[in-house]
Design goal:
about 30% strand; three-stranded antiparallel beta sheet; alpha+beta; six-stranded mixed beta sheet; Immunoglobulin-like; Myelin_P0-rel
């Protein structure tokens, strides 16, 4: 069916830059710009292109088939291809060397597969260039975790004390009940209370 064919074409080729699309790099360092692609029906004469800020081409490669590695069509002198397409993953990542502050911006990994009627897909990475990496101060987080942990500990201690106190009160009440039961069954004759014992019959008259 035509509808199913269009659906298969639309979702056969996928391009990904990983779990996050933001990268931070130190000034004058090298930075990896990752990109992989997947296809359900394979590829032939596939062309992939890296763009800077959507317009400036910085690398282009062509892959004849799954059995061959990419050949370079165009490359910026500061860009190195570090991927591989003959392995498990179709990796078309590049490394940007000696990054400068002017290199900060949007990098797009664009893939075109003629076998899928020239289906085109892309994924984007945003690069930030900094003078130095800022260490994250976790002091506040540690203080919060310490306070929360302390409160939980106090709550558990309070519950334990409550259980012990309730247990002692219950035992004390049970002891009082036993005393009341035993005292209610005592013979009260010795205390001078009448009717505590059956009256003794008078001796019969002679």
């Amino acid at each position: 069916l035509p509808g199913l064919h269009i659906f298969a074409i639309a979702f056969a080729l996928e391009v990904s830059v990983g779990k996050t699309n933001t990268v931070m790099a130190l000034n004058n360092s090298n930075v990896l710009l990752p990109c992989t692609f997947t296809t359900c029906i394979g590829f032939q004469d596939l062309v992939f292109t890296w763009y800077f800020n959507s317009t400036e081409m910085i690398y282009q490669g062509k892959i004849k088939s799954k059995a061959s590695e990419p050949t370079v069509v165009m490359s910026n002198p500061r860009v190195e291809f570090v991927g591989s397409t003959t392995g498990k993953d179709n990796n078309i990542s590049i490394v940007l060397q000696n990054v400068e502050f002017s290199d900060a911006g949007k990098y797009t990994c664009h893939v075109k597969n003629p076998k899928e009627k020239d289906a085109r897909h892309n994924a984007t990475i945003f690069l930030t260039v900094v003078q130095k990496m800022v260490e994250t101060d976790n002091t506040v987080t540690l203080i919060i975790l310490g306070v929360v942990g302390g409160l939980i500990g106090l709550l558990i201690l309070f519950m334990l004390i409550k259980r012990v106190v309730l247990f002692i009160i219950k035992k004390t009440q049970d002891g009082k009940k036993e005393c009341l039961v035993s005292s209610s069954g005592n013979d009260n004759t010795e205390n001078g209370l009448a009717g505590s014992k059956a009256e003794q019959k008078a001796p019969p008259k002679a």
